[in-house]
Amino acid sequence: MPQPTDDERIALAEAWIAQDPDPETRDELAAVVAAVRDGDDAASADLASRFDERLAFGTAGLRGEIAAGPNRMNRVLVSQGAAGLAAYLLEHAADGAVPSVVVGYDGRRNSEVFARDVAEVMSGVGVRAVLLPRLLPTPVLAFAVRHLDTSAGVMITASHNPPNDNGMKVYLGGEDAGSQIVAPADGEIAAHILRVAHGTLVPDLPRGEVETADESVVDAYIAATAAVASPPAAQPRAVYTAMHGVGWETLQRVLEAAGFDAPELVGAQIEPDGRFPTVAFPNPEEPGAMDLSFEAARAAGADLVIANDPDADRLAVAIPDASASEGYRRLSGNEVGLLLGWQVAEGLAGSTTDGAGPRGTLACSIVSSPGLEAIARAYGLDFRATLTGFKWISRAPDLAFGYEEALGYLVNPGTVRDKDGISAAVAFLSLAARLAAEGRTVADHLDEFAERFGAHESTQVSIRVTDLSRISDIMARLRARPPAEVGGIRVARIDDLAQGADGYPPSDVLRLVLDGDARVMVRPSGTEPKLKVYIDASAAEGSVAERRAAAADVVARLEAGMRELIA
Which of the residues are catalytic? Predict the structure, then answer.
């Protein structure tokens, strides 16, 4: 299909400006159009980037850079998205029933504006719309979908993306029980959005009255989340950062209700600030993101550092480590997930009264550590490995605990069907308190895990790109010329999940199973312009130190080999 000309793009841009309710993005796009007319090649490329594609609505909803045009996040796209979602809910509503939506927002740029657009547009076509009372964490919105028994939920957030990004995350109630959307709902909603975009101008979309949720919704979340905690037998010295996000107000109230002392705060990062001025990238996984936390921890002599990402759906944990240059080491998402999963399994075993053994399912994404399956086997629990994302993990039957290595944990599936960095923080503090009362540390507990379940070592290779075609080219190359060995270790089997495998829906994932049960997973990120490679190996022979060394050696060899393959 031929690419549009500059004149055709200018016509599209002028039509966009005519329906855009935001003066900032109108003026921004008008300046680009003027530069294109003046022969500016960079402006021409910018206009093509904005108008030659449309920001796709998928299982993560919408997410992208805030700017004008259909391939950016803005009030036009958000309004069209709201109208499309409303059409889907009305189409699927029972006869005579009025569908409903609860809308939340975080502290990012335009979050409240986008949230009000969503609520007003959906109300305008007959959906009962409820707006949360103020900026709040994503887990509170996920909770509210179930607590208020709404047909859907929308959270305006881009989680830990760069400062100028925002997004629209969609949940469904009813039979979906407050989980994020999956196929076929995502495709049906996307089709409705396109019909709106092609047939109705944003100023012509009717807008209606919006209810504001009572504070009792937040109170109920706090009570349910505090119930996750065990009464603290000791008070670990903790440092907390909100990473310029919205987590602290809610976490503070949960900790008080659960009986924990207030942690030391990273004051420069505790208030919501969508500019994220003290971090290059507001993601606790990124190098340097927790430097201020480590500085505060050293000053306080802390036993533990806990960090939420900006919308508080993720949790990062760090512990003292004399071998680390900062004096603290951030635990990997797998390490935290395995310790929390072990704690849940122990709790299930301890609560059994009928002699039938513990019941429940431990679940994780296919790119997370196989160690969770080892825990499930040891306790006689069911185990599920799902496609990446809590939209899948949260749907595991009889779910007791779920996690993914990207710092996401679901410890309270009875109330929230999404990752929840606040309940996970409380659960981990409960674990640290129990260990402290017994004279042990988190590091000791990690050794105990390796002794009981084997040493499970993991690492990740992540390649950020500016041209998305580079990712598809690498995936195509690996499929066309599959490696016989990686890092000198023989590849025993390659599973291409693009055709569907092991009961999974088709997904752009390659799984390499190597001698010794080591594993490499390769997939494009679903939320960022990255190619991700996940590497796992385990060892169960010898001392804890020998097990760790053996597994780490395999991981290092595989990492070096994969870096060569995808260069």
Answer: 159
